[in-house]
Amino acid sequence: MSLTDNQKNLLRWIVKEVRAGNLKEDSIWYIRTLTDYGWVDYKGSDSWPPVTFATFDILEEYGYIKWQQKSQNQYKGALTGKAYKAVDSNFDEPNRSAIRHLIPLTEVEHLDSELWERVRFSVSAGGDNPKAWDTAIRNATVVLEDRMRKLGNIDNINQKATGNGIVNLIFRSNKSVQKDQLPSEELEAYRDLYSGTMKLFRNRYAHRFIDPKPEEGGAIIVFIDLLLKMLDDLNWETENENT
C-alpha cells in the first residue's frame, strides 16, 4: 500500500507551510463545520490541496502526523520527523527524469532527421506491426550505409563498394579515409563496431524478412541513430581539421 498523489500533495503542502512559518509544526489544526472550514491560525496565502479527514487518518497511519485530538469537525496534531524525510526524498520514489532520454523515440525530434524521414511512414502506418518495423530497419540501415559513403566520399572512389567494404574503406588501418584522424586502436574499434552492425543488421534485413518485435525494432532504430551521430561527429572533426 502506498499514498495516492492527493495524499502526497497534501503532506507536501503542510510541510512547505510549516517550514515557511505559516503553520505551527506542533499545532496543525484543521476545522470543518457547516459554515466554515480551513486551517486555524494559518498565516499564508496559498491555496491548499483537497483535504479529507480520511487522508488525515492515512497520514497518521504512515507515521507522518500524530493527531492529539480529532472529532467529526476538527483534527489537531503535530508533524513527525518522518514527514520531512518523506517529502525531501519525494517519498523514496526513483528519479524518472532520465526516462525520456532512454526512450528517444517518444520525442522524435531528437532523432537524426534523415533517419526519421525514412522510417516514419512505415512505423506510423503500424507501430505494433512487426512487418512495419522490418521495413523501417531496412530503410534505417540504408541511411547508415549512405551516410558512411558521404563521410568517405566513396562514390567517387569505388562505386561498387557496399556494406563491410564501405566500412573498411573508411576505418581500415593504413589505407582508410580516417587513418590520419584517429589513433590506430580507436580506428580499429570504429571498424569493428560498424562492421558488426553492417553484418548483423544491414545484411540480414537486406536479404530476408526478419519482422522483429516492435520493442526490438525501436531499439535498433535508436542504435542506428547513435551510429549516425557518431559519423556526423567524425565528419565535423575532419572538416575542421582541413580548414
Walk me through what this model shows.
There is one protein chain. The protein has 243 residues and is an alpha+beta fold. 55% of the residues lie in helices and 8% in strands. The protein is built from nine helices and four strands. It has helices spanning 5-19, 53-61, 81-88, 99-102, 113-125, 130-152, 163-171, 184-207, 214-241; strands at residues 28-32, 37-39, 65-70, 74-79. Strands 2-1-4-3 form a four-stranded antiparallel sheet. A hairpin with a 3-residue loop joins strand 3 (65-70) and strand 4 (74-79). The longest helix has 28 residues, at 214-241. It is elongated, with a radius of gyration of 30 Å. The model has no long low-confidence stretch (mean pLDDT 86).
Please describe the structure with a list of short key phrases separated by commas or semicolons:
single chain; about 55% helix; 4-stranded antiparallel sheet; about 240 residues; alpha+beta
The number of distinct helices, counting runs of at least 4 residues, comes to 9
Morphology call: elongated
Helix percent reads 40-55%
The tally of beta strands, per DSSP, is 4
List the secondary-structure elements in sequence, H or E: HEEHEEHHHHHHH
For the record, give the distance between the C-alpha atoms at the N and C termini, rounded to a whole number: 63 Å
What structural class is derived from the secondary structure elements? Answer: alpha+beta
Radius of gyration: 30 Å
Order of neighbouring strands in the sheet with most strands: 2-1-4-3
Largest sheet: 4 strands, antiparallel
